[in-house]
Amino acid sequence: MGFFDRLSNGWNITMSSFKVLRANKQLIVFPVLSGAALVLIMASFGLAILAAFGFDVEFLESEFFGAESSGSMVLNYGLIFCFYVVNYFVITFFNMALIHCARLYFHGEEVTVSAGLRFSLSRIGVIFSWALFAATVGTILRAIQENTGIVGKIITGLIGIVWSIATFFVVPVIAYENCGPIDAFRRSAQLMREKWGESLGSRIGFGVVNLLAFILLAVVVVALGATVHWALGVAIAVMGAFSIMIVMSAAETIFIAAVYHNVTGTPVEHFNQQLIDGLFEPKN
User: Fold this and answer.
1) H or E stretch including 132?
2) Which of 127, 129, 130 lies closest to 94, judged by CA?
3) What is the CA radius of gyration of the chain?
4) pLDDT of 23-35, one tens digit each?
5) Has this prediction a pTM greater than 0.70?
6) Distance CA 66, CA 20 (A)
7) Residue 10: partners with Cβ closer than 8 Å, 6 or more residues away
8) Residue 96 vs residues 90, 119, 181, 219, 224: alpha-carbon distances, Å
9) Cα 280 to the chain's mean position, in Å?
10) pLDDT at 199
């Protein structure tokens, strides 16, 4: 399959994802809740650390984050690990809820936010296990990156890319295949090896939509800032950027749900089967 065929397929699959989202606008709630939860949890986390040291920022920086402190490295990476755990847990929890709602829609069942949240709560143990596993990997890569030269940074960067590809299907796998974190990673990587095509055409589609949306937002912001007031332009820029990010996040998660159900043999009514088959086809 040629590049332009994949470009066309990616665009059509992207549009199909947005079609599902338009039919289920309540799914936007999940990325909103995910972002809000991360902000609140990390703000509380930071406040608790400051309170523990009497809000003495200078002491905290000098004693625990100074380059020469032997204890600073342990605390530093401990905090990074905790951040990763929270980050992976929150994102996986709400992505799983969204993926389950997409599955309900694909099967012609009623889609509700509460149904998605209940499903994620029923899988909270494996979500936490995955968060611990992913946070461990992330912390190790961060430590290697920060304590090696340019070659180490390049290697960890490449490992990070491989990790993101190998974990593409992790959320639906831990949702529906009763796998622990290591088995889920292996299963996700296996699915990608079996169905990996020459390129992920959908990334082009989502990239084009994202670029066009931000260009349109920039035009509106500049126009309002120049003709009305700069403060209005800033407000519209913040709200517009946030809206674009949550819509794109929801649509991409719907895409993952659709492709997962396709590659595991479950028909997906609202997606063109040939397009998805062409997106993930075995390598020669």
Assistant:
1) helix 124-146
2) 127
3) 21
4) 888 999 999 999 8
5) yes
6) 50
7) 200, 201, 202, 203, 204, 205, 206, 279
8) 10, 8, 14, 35, 38
9) 20
10) 42
Provide the residue type at 172 as one letter: P
Which 8-state DSSP code applies to residue 28?
G
Per-domain residue ranges of the chain: 3-279
SS3 179: coil
* Percent of the residues in the chain that have a pLDDT greater than 70, as a whole number: 76
Query: Which one-letter amino acid corresponds to residue 175?
Result: A
Provide mean pLDDT across the span 57-82. 65
Tokens found for residue 154: 């390049």
Q: Counting every residue, how long is the chain?
A: 284
Would you give the distance in Å from CA 203 to the centre of its chain? 13
Q: Cα-flanking dihedrals φ and ψ of residue 36, to 5°? A: -65, -40
* Per-residue confidence band for 200, with pLDDT thresholds at 50, 70 and 90: low
Two structure tokens written together for 246: 């949550």
